[in-house]
Structure formats: structure tokens, C-alpha cells
Amino acid sequence: MHRMRRNVTLIGLAVLTMLFAIACQGGGSAIKVGSKDFTEQFILGEMYALVLENQGFDVERKLNLGGTPVAQAGLETGQIDLYPEYTGTAFLTVLKRPNNSNPQYVYQTVADSYREKYNLVWLEPAPMINTFAFVMTQEGAKEYNMKTISDMVAQASQLTLVGPPAFEGREDGLPGLKQVYGDFQLKKFIPTDPGLRYKALSEGQADVVVGFSTDGEISAFNLVVLEDNQNFFPPYQVAPVVRQETLDKHPGIREALNQLAPKLTNETMRRLNYEVSGKKREPAEVAREFLIQEGFLD
Tens digits of per-residue pLDDT, 227-243? Predict the structure, then answer.
């Protein structure tokens, strides 16, 4: 009886050792995919997760984390392994670099700095550039005779602007805008959830909204985007940012997600974003449908 118990114990230890070895090789550790807290990020996060799952990786979704500081902290602490980020946001908000409008320079600076400072890797950027945009209705633009951001600044005291809460303090928000376009005071700034911006515009609660150049509503409602005539906003190409430690364990992540990047254009993202924000479809459903159409999923 004693010998039998000893054999059972040894077998149990052998099984545990084997399971531990598999886990150490990555077989038991899920890749934690994060995203920030707005429509495009939900879609991109789902795309990354679905592409990786299709390659046989175990994936855990940690979407809707919050803004850039939360997502960045999640990467640094290992709460997440990767998430979609924008080059301009990393350049200005995370690295605190002075504004630059050259996409290649911004990407390379961000990639080099993240590797050296945080041991994080930027994969290939998509061609889409999702910069901030000041958006008006056709009627509003005609009423105020506004075509450029300079036109908006000249009439700022008459205008109510709706935008994300962080825009009041971001380097690529109102503080930076005033440095480039000159100091100005709005009639009112109303911080609001991203999902409510265009509702506020359509209901007349705002004259201008802070949107993004890939927002689906711009095409769907034939809205006007004011020209950034002083080239204030930097390029915001999206790319997966991944922990080096995660890439070392799962090198296949790089190829899988780099193949997706060229498919993500401004036109594509506007269409996909509106499927969610306008037609109220689920981001996972929209992401899966797109990936099937593009041949990434069976």
C-alpha cells in the first residue's frame, strides 16, 4: 500500500512537472490583448485577438481599458501584452516630444524610444492616419463661413466645442493648438463621452466637435472637416505595441499582425467604425466579418 501511494505521488509530480513545462513554453499562457475606450479601438483590439486566435494562440481580451496612460501602464506592468496605439499619441503624450508632421520620422522615433525606454516593440504601422479633426455640419460651416482651423480660432468666442475630456490638457489638444494658432478662448468646452459627440452636434448642443479623421459619421452625414492649415496635428498611424518579453515567447505575433496592417486604410476604418457607432453592431462581429472578407479567417 505504501509503495502504491508512493507511485501515485511520483506520477502526480511527473504530470505537474510536464504541465509546468508546457506553461513555461507558452502553451498555458494567454496573450492579453488590450484596447483603449472608443469604437475604433474596440474593432482593432478584436481584429488583433481574432487574427492571433486563428494562428493558434490562446488570447485573453482586456478591451476598453481607458485612455493612453492606463493602456501604457498596462503594457509596462504586464497587465496586457499588446494593444493598438497611434504614433502621434505616443510621440506627444507618452514621450513628450515637440510636434512633428513627418510620419516616417514620428514612427521611427517612437519605435526606437519605446524599445530603449520601455522594452516595448512597435510592429508595422497601418497606412491609416487617424488624426484629431474639428468637425461641423454643412449648415454650421456655412453660417460661420469656416473652412480652416484658423477660421475657427478667429471666431472661437462664439463657439461651443464638444470633445473628449483629455483634449483640454493634452499636448495635441487645446494647449498645443493655442501655441500654434495663437491664444483663444472658446465660448464653452463641453467634455463628453466619444459616443455622444455627433449626437451633440446633430442636436445643436455644439457648434464644433473634436472628432477623428476615421470617424464613420463624417462620411455618413456628409460633415465638414476643418483644414489643419498650420499643420498642427501630427500623424497618427496605428500599430500594435507589444512587450518584448511576449514577442520572445510568441514570435509568430509579429508576422500575423504585420500582415493585417496594410489593409487598414482611412476609408476602411470609417466604414467599419460606422457599422458600430452608427448601425450599433458589435465590434467583434464587424471585425470578424472584415477579416473573413479579407481572407484572414475561414
Answer: 999 999 889 999 999 99
pTM for this structure?
Answer: 0.78
Q: Are 139 and 212 in contact (CB under 8 A)?
A: no
Q: Which residue has the cell 497601418?
A: 126
Number of other residues whose CB lies within 10 A of the CB of residue 68: 18
| Plot region of 49 (φ>0 → left; ψ -120 to 50 → alpha; else → beta) | alpha
**Beta strands 59-62; 160-163: pairing state:** unpaired
Residue 9 has pLDDT above 50, yes or no: no
Q: What are phi and psi of 129, to 5 degrees?
A: -125, 105
**Which residue from 213, 204, 217, 207 is spatially nearest to 187, judged by alpha carbons?**
207
CA distance 9 to 1: 12
Helix, strand, or coil here: 86?
strand
Tell me how far apart the alpha carbons of residues 211 and 192 are, in angstroms, rounded to a whole number: 12
Q: Name the residue type at position 240.
A: P
Q: What does the radius of gyration of the chain's CA atoms come to, in whole angstroms?
A: 23
Per-residue pLDDT tens over the stretch 233-292: 889 999 999 999 999 999 999 999 999 999 999 999 999 999 998 999 999 999 999 999
Concatenated DSSP letters of 117-186: HH-EEE-PPPS-B--EEEEE-HHHHHHHT--BHHHHHHTGGG-EEEE-GGGGT-TTSHHHHHHHH-----
User: Could you give phi then psi for residue 241, rounded to 5 degrees?
Assistant: -110, 125
Sequence-ordered list of residues with C-beta below 8 angstroms from that of 226, at least 6 positions apart, any chain: 133, 134, 135, 136, 141, 146, 147, 148, 149, 151, 152, 208
> What is the distance between the terminal CA atoms of the chain, rounded to a whole angstrom?
54
Give the helix/strand (H/E) hosting 242: strand 238-243
The rounded distance, in Å, linking the Cα atoms of 254 and 150 is 42
